[in-house]
Amino acid sequence: MHDFKFKNGELYCEDVRVRDAAVKVGTPFYLYSHNTLRDHFTKIQKAFAPVEPLICFAMKSNDNLAVLKTLANLGAGFDIVSGGELKKALRTGVSADKIVFASVGKTEEEITDAINAGILLFNVESLPELEEIHRIAQKMNKKPKVALRINPDVKALTHAKITTGTLKNKFGIDLQTARKILRSAAKYPNVQLSGLHIHIGSQITTRAPFLKAMTKVLEFLDVLKKDGVALEYLDIGGGMGIIYKDEQPQTAQDFAEAVLPYLRKTGLKIIMEPGRFIVGNAGILVSRVLYLKDNGFKKFLIVDAGMNDLIRPALYDAYHEIVPIVETKARKVKMDIVGPICESADFFARDRMFPALNNGDLLAVMSAGAYGYVMASNYNVRGRPPEVMVKGDQFEVAKQRETFDDLMRGETVPSFL
Ligand SMILES: *Cc1c(COP(=O)(O)O)cnc(C)c1O
Fold first, then answer.
1. 342 belongs to the catalytic site
2. What is the pLDDT of residues 342-388, one digit of tens each?
3. Cα(162) to centroid of ligand 1, in Å?
4. What pTM did the predictor assign?
5. Ligand 1 atom 10: the closest Cα is on which residue?
6. Separation of 333 CA from ligand 1 center, angstroms?
């Protein structure tokens, strides 16, 4: 559920009329609902309450400070994937021991910073990475906790670009290698081999792949037990799917009911890393119609947001619901809804029945809260749009629109030209 609803024919975010926010900040812009974030977070918290998990929001899905602060205030930790995310997470005032760090390519600087900060866990994705963390920790005379991200070789039944849990993917450590590492823990006196981590993909709408992965985890834990390996944490990653179109994803409650028996059996402390489930439907991208173009073969509604603002359709063939923010009687015709970028991949919808809006009319690309702004770029020398948060009847710009000066910062013509 989310807090973007029509009242008297106009789209509202909570108690703010989207049109009023558009007048204030201009288009395009991202709009986030505080209440939706809170609602989604507490749904997971309640559903999994029996195992009291640490819920580490996957901040790569949305790293806006207002979003992070909202979740930190509710008790969330953060799942980070870079040194930049570490620094940004700490800006929320979150305790470092609620931060877990995944990434297949952690650098020496990132590892050093994370050890210094005192994060809870490194989710380690290869043997050479473990050796590097160990080398750095030894130099610093520290003993950080690590979990091995295992690759359970399970297909997640999602888009190829967001499946991560098979051996064709670069993520995680195969079970044989993981077992070898855990049996030779004595070789790594400066790390605590404390747990296992899995994350098999994103936008997974059914429980079957999760349960398959959990079965493999339980089997693996049994093997480890016989090896005399004792662990403290199981991090089950993120990946819970949401509704973009006609998906019927399991609710947090359904998912919990299916997974909890497995989690209880492990006897380990549970960490979760939801991203999209919390923030996906908590944000929209608002854009203005520039032109309706008809080339005699096809119609194109050209809007002022582009793939540089929201790349999901281009990158993942993603479907987003799109609605005029003021209900209209304009007749619906089949059209592509596209941006101004010089790429044929710059589209938000293809062959969609949509009202023939006029220049200046506003529309909302729904469910744009996850993997939206964070993937925005400056392609075509376009400043990234502002991010606005709504709470009740209040709204505030949480990140300013980038200006031309912002874009030119640090760029100079070499002296030899
Ligand atoms: C991306 C990612 C997540 C979050 O995935 P969602 O599908 O957004 O829930 C969690 N854990 C790791 C390691 C990730 O890379």
1. yes
2. 999 999 999 999 999 999 999 999 999 999 999 999 999 999 999 99
3. 9
4. 0.97
5. 238
6. 37
